[in-house]
Amino acid sequence: MSSKIYVGNLPYSVTDASLKNNFSEFGDVSSAKVMMDRDTGKSKGFGFVEMSNAEVAQAAIEALHGMSVDGRSIVVSLARPREATGGAGGHGAGGFTASKRADVGYGNGGYGGGRY
């Protein structure tokens, strides 16, 4: 069982330190990170906490899930593994590939490049 915990629906006032503080009452916290928006520097409203072992992680999940923090009911669950993305720019694993259609593209007649 994993000891990495997802914490969602966090108030924007929650910091790494306060997140670590709340989870440390259940056991040793290896790390606590509130995810921040790259452009604005403000909280995205979720974070991750890594606990020393799976038993204390499960105890923290059971105790804190649904708890009200600054008027918001937080979501606490085991973190799922990160899903593989499609690669740079949102294209498939092979990168960007042009269309295989013969009637689309340059050099097939007319100024527009397509067939009329």
Give a verbal description of the structure:
- The chain is of the alpha+beta class and 116 residues long.
- It has a domain at 4-78: 2-Layer Sandwich (Alpha-Beta Plaits).
- It has two helices and six strands.
- It has helices at 16-24, 54-64; strands spanning 4-8, 29-36, 43-51, 68-69, 72-73, 75-78.
- The strands form two sheets. A four-stranded antiparallel sheet has the order 2-3-1-6, covered by helices on one side. It has a two-stranded antiparallel sheet with strand order 4-5.
- A hairpin with a 2-residue loop joins strand 4 (68-69) and strand 5 (72-73).
- It is globular, with a radius of gyration of 23 Å.
The proportion of residues forming helix, as a percent range, comes to 10-25%
- Identify the overall geometry: globular
Name of the CATH homologous superfamily of one domain: RRM (RNA recognition motif) domain
In percent terms, what proportion of residues is strand?
25-35%
Secondary-structure-based class equals: alpha+beta
Distance separating the two termini: 61 Å
What is the β-strand count?
6
CATH class of one domain: Alpha Beta
Mean model confidence by pLDDT? 83
CATH-derived topology of one domain: Alpha-Beta Plaits
Distinct helical segment count? 2
Largest sheet, if any? 4 strands, antiparallel
Unreliable runs, pLDDT <50, ≥5 residues? none
